[in-house]
Design brief:
Number of helices of chain B: 13
Number of helices of chain A: 8
Helix content of chain B: 55-70%
Largest sheet of chain A: 6 strands, mixed
Radius of gyration of chain A: 21 Å
Distance between the termini of chain B: 39 Å
Helix content of chain A: 25-40%
Shape of chain A: globular
Family (chain A): Belongs to the ABC transporter superfamily.
Mean pLDDT of chain B: 84
Structural class of chain A: alpha/beta
Distance between the termini of chain A: 38 Å
Protein name (chain A): ABC transporter ATP-binding protein
Pfam families (chain A): ABC_tran
Keywords (chain A): ATP-binding, Nucleotide-binding, Transport
InterPro entries (chain A): AAA+_ATPase, ABC_transporter-like_ATP-bd, ABC_transpr_TagH-like, Bact_Polysacc_Export_ATP-bd, P-loop_NTPase
Mean pLDDT of chain A: 79
Oligomer: heterodimer
Structural class of chain B: mainly alpha
Order of helices and strands of chain B: HEHHHHHHHHHHHH
Number of strands of chain B: 1
Chain lengths: 265, 318
C-alpha cells in the first residue's frame, strides 16, 4: 500500500438509535390507546433501540473491511448509517462520494422477467438507460442465469432461490461504487458462484475504493477482507487485521456459545 | 487469496483483548473531524438543497417511469387474462356504479346523458382518489427500497401517480368506447381534456407527495384514508350533480354548494365532463373554472413538493 492513505469513510463517535412502533410493553388495547391520546402521554408501544453505541473508525481507499459480531450486534445498522440511510443520533459519519449498500433486491419485482429486473435494478442504483444497456450482457453472463436455458426472459418468481440471489448480486455488483457496503451476500449461490463473487469484490475494491462486508461466514471474511471490525452489543470491540480479529472472535464464540442477549433487535 | 495489504496501525485501531469487557473509548473527536475535513469528506445523510434535489430527481426520471410501468405490469401478471384487466376493471366499475346509482337509486332522472356523465366522473375520480391512496403508502410500503438504496424519495410518490395516470389512459380508452356508444362523437371540444388532465396530474402529484410525508410519519393515516376518501367522493358529485341535488334540499346555504363545486375533487371531474359531453354546458362548471383548474394544480404541486422535500432525510428511519 502506498504511504499516502486516503480516507474514504470516517466514523466519529457514532450512535444510532431508532424508534420501534408496536413494541410490546403496556397494554395494547384500544382503550389504553385512547386514554394515551387523551392524556397526551407518549405511546408505550414505542421503544427506543440503541443499536450502535459510539463507534469510531477510519476506512481507507483500497481496503476491504469485514464486520463481524453475533446477531443483533448492530452490524447492519452501522452499515446503513455509513450509507447515509440512517442518520446517527450522535456523532458524524464523513464519506468520500456516495457509499452504496449492495441492496438492490428491494427494487426488484418477482412478477417481472429477469430482463426487466436487470433494467429496473440498474436504474434504481442510479445508472442511466445507456449505462444499463452497456452492462446488461455482463450482468446476465456473470449471473450465469442463462447457462441452463433461457431463464432471463422468465418471471423472477420462477427462479430457484439460488438463481434469484445470483441475479441480485450480479445486478448490484455491476456498478462501480466509491464505497460499497455488502450485507450477507456471499452466503448465497453455489461454490462456483461464491468464488466468482469474491473475485468481483476484489475487483471492485481495486477499482473503486473501500468495500465493507457483513457476514457470518468467518471464512468469507478471512478470504475477502484485510481488516475486520468486531461489533458486540453496539460497541466496537476490536479493529485490526482480519485474521487476528476473526481469531479473537472465534475464541469468544467458542468460550461463550451463548453470549448474553444482545440489547438490539 | 488475501488482498495484498495490511492495516496494522489505523488511527483508531483498538486491539483489545477479546476477554476485555469494557467498550473501547471513542477516538479523539476533533482529530477525526479534522481528518475528514482535510480530505474533503462530506457528512453522510444530509438533506440536499431544493435545486440539488430537483436535479437529482430529474436524473432519476428513467427510474421513475420504469418503476411505474413495472408496477403496472406486475399488477396483472398472474391473471390468466393478463393485461386485458387494465381495461376490464374500469369498465366493470362503471357498470356497477350505473346499476346502483342509475338504475336502483334513479339518480339519472334529471341528468341528460347520464351514462357518459357517470363514467367520466368515476374514471376521473378514481385517478384522484387512487393517487391519494398510493401516496399514503408510497414510503411505508416501499420501506425496503428506501432503506437499501439512495435516491430522491419523491421518486416513489411521483412514480405511483404516474402509474395511476397510465391506468387512467386505459380507462380513457374504455371511456371513448362508451361515449361513442352513447352518441357522444369525437369533436374539437375534446381537446380541452388535455389541459384539464395536465392540471389534474399536477394536483394528484402534489397531494400524493403530501400524503406520502404524512403516511411515512404516521402510518395510522392509511387506515383512516378510505373513510375520508368516501366522504370526499360523495361531496364531489361523482354520481350526481351537486348543484341539482342541493336544489332539491331546502336549507343548504349557497356558499356550501359553491365550496363543494370549487374544491379540486369536483373541479377536475366537471372540467372533464365539460370537455367531453355535449349536454354538459359551461353554465354547469363553477365560475373561473380554468383558474381553479390551474390554481389547484400549481398550488398543490409546488406546495406538496416543498413539503415533502423538507423531511427528505427522515424517510425510512425507524
Amino acid at each position: 500500500m502506498a504511504d499516502e492513505r486516503i480516507p474514504t469513510v470516517v466514523a466519529d463517535g457514532v450512535h444510532v438509535t431508532y424508534k420501534v412502533h408496536g413494541a410490546k410493553g403496556g397494554k395494547g388495547s384500544a382503550t389504553s390507546a385512547l386514554s394515551r391520546i387523551v392524556s397526551r402521554r407518549p405511546a408505550v408501544g414505542v421503544r427506543e433501540v440503541h443499536a450502535v453505541k459510539g463507534v469510531s473508525f477510519v476506512a481507507y481507499r483500497g481496503e476491504a473491511i469485514g464486520l463481524i459480531g453475533s446477531n443483533g450486534s448492530g452490524k447492519s445498522t452501522l452499515l446503513r448509517a455509513v450509507a447515509g440511510l440512517q442518520v446517527p443520533s450522535a456523532g458524524h459519519i464523513h464519506t468520500a462520494g456516495q457509499p452504496s449498500l449492495l441492496g438492490v433486491n428491494a427494487a426488484l419485482m418477482n412478477d417481472l422477467t429477469g430482463e426487466r429486473n436487470v433494467v429496473l435494478g440498474g436504474l434504481a442504483m442510479g445508472m442511466s438507460r445507456r449505462e444499463v444497456k452497456d452492462v446488461y450482457d455482463d450482468i446476465v453472463d456473470f449471473s450465469g442465469i442463462n447457462e441452463k436455458g433461457d431463464f432471463i426472459s422468465l418471471p423472477m418468481r420462477t427462479y430457484s432461490s439460488g438463481m434469484g440471489a445470483r441475479l441480485r448480486f450480479s445486478i448490484a455488483a455491476a456498478k462501480n461504487h466509491d464505497v460499497l457496503l455488502i450485507d450477507e451476500a456471499l452466503s448465497t449461490g453455489d461454490a462456483r458462484f461464491q468464488a466468482r463473487s469474491k473475485e468481483r469484490i476484489n475487483e471492485l475494491r481495486k477499482e473503486a475504493g473501500t468495500v465493507f462486508l457483513v457476514s457470518h461466514s468467518n471464512r468469507a471474511i478471512r478470504e475477502t477482507c484485510g481488516r475486520a471490525l468486531w461489533l458486540e452489543a453496539g460497541t466496537l470491540r476490536m479493529d485490526g487485521p482480519a485474521d487476528e480479529v476473526v481469531d479473537a472472535y472465534e475464541r469468544f464464540t467458542a468460550a461463550k456459545p451463548k453470549p448474553k442477549p444482545a440489547a438490539t433487535k | 487469496m488475501k488482498p495484498p495489504f495490511t492495516s496494522k496501525a489505523t488511527p483508531v485501531s483498538q486491539t483489545i483483548a477479546p476477554t476485555h469487557a469494557t467498550p473501547p473509548t471513542p477516538g479523539n473527536e476533533t482529530d477525526l473531524a479534522a481528518l475528514a475535513a482535510r480530505y474533503g469528506l462530506s457528512v453522510s445523510g444530509a438533506r440536499p438543497t431544493l435545486p440539488q434535489y430537483v436535479g437529482r430527481l430529474w436524473s432519476r426520471r428513467h427510474f421513475i417511469t420504469t418503476f411505474a410501468t413495472a408496477k403496472l405490469t406486475a399488477q396483472y401478471s398472474q391473471a390468466k387474462l393478463g393485461q386485458i384487466w387494465q381495461i376490464m376493471t374500469p369498465l366493470l366499475n362503471a357498470i356497477v356504479y350505473f346499476f346502483i346509482f342509475g338504475v336502483l337509486l334513479g339518480t339519472k332522472k334529471n341528468i341528460p346523458d347520464y351514462v357518459p356523465f357517470l363514467v367520466t366522473g368515476v374514471f376521473i375520480w378514481t385517478y384522484t382518489s387512487s393517487s391519494v391512496t398510493a401516496g399514503t403508502r408510497a414510503i411505508s410500503s416501499n420501506q425496503g427500497l428506501v432503506r437499501a438504496l439512495h435516491f430522491p424519495r419523491a421518486s416513489l410518490p411521483l412514480s405511483l401517480v404516474l402509474q395511476q395516470l397510465q391506468q387512467l389512459f386505459f380507462s380513457i380508452c374504455a371511456l371513448v368506447i362508451i361515449l361513442v356508444a352513447f352518441g357522444q362523437y369525437p369533436r374539437f371540444h375534446w381537446v380541452l381534456a388535455i389541459p384539464a388532465l395536465a392540471c389534474q396530474s399536477m394536483f394528484c402529484a402534489g397531494i400524493s407527495l403530501i400524503m406520502a410525508r404524512l403516511g411515512a410519519k404516521t402510518p395510522d393515516i392509511a387506515q383512516l384514508m378510505p373513510f375520508i376518501i368516501r366522504v370526499w367522493m360523495y361531496t364531489s358529485g361523482v354520481m350526481w350533480s351537486v348543484e341539482k341535488l342541493a336544489s332539491g334540499h331546502e336549507g343548504i346555504p349557497d356558499w356550501v354548494v359553491m365550496a363543494l363545486r370549487c374544491q379540486p375533487g369536483a373541479v377536475y371531474i366537471d372540467m372533464m365532463r365539460y370537455a367531453l359531453i355535449d349536454s354538459f354546458h359551461a353554465s354547469q362548471i363553477p365560475p373561473h373554472a380554468w383558474a381553479l383548474t390551474l390554481g389547484w394544480g400549481v398550488l398543490f404541486f409546488v406546495g406538496g413538493f416543498i413539503y415533502f422535500w423538507r423531511a427528505e432525510e427522515s424517510y425510512g428511519r425507524g
